[in-house]
Amino acid sequence: MKKLLIAAILAVVTVLYVGYYEALEDGDIETIVFIKKHPTFLMKFYNIHANDGEIRKVERLTAEERGWIIDYCRYRLGIDTDLKTQDDVEMCRQK
Hints:
Blueprint: H1 2-17, E1 18-25, E2 28-35, H2 48-51, H3 63-77, H4 86-91
Antiparallel strand pairs: 1-2
C-alpha cells in the first residue's frame, strides 16, 4: 500500500512538473523534455520557434498560436507575457 501511494505521488509530481515539446532537428522529430517553471497538468507544449525557420510576426499569429506561445513562455521559460509586441515573441524564442 505504501509503495502504491508513493508511486501515485511521484506520478502526480511528474505530471505537474515535467513537460515536453517536439522539435524538428536535422530532419528528425525529437522530443525535448524539460522541467516546468510552474506546475500545471498540461504536459505537451508547442514551441512555435522549434519547427519554423522564419520569424513569426505577432500580428499574424492566430489565437491558438498565441495561446501556445504564452503557455510555452510561462511554463518552459518562466516568463509571463500577454504577447502584444514582436519583442514578446522574440523573448519566448529561447530554447
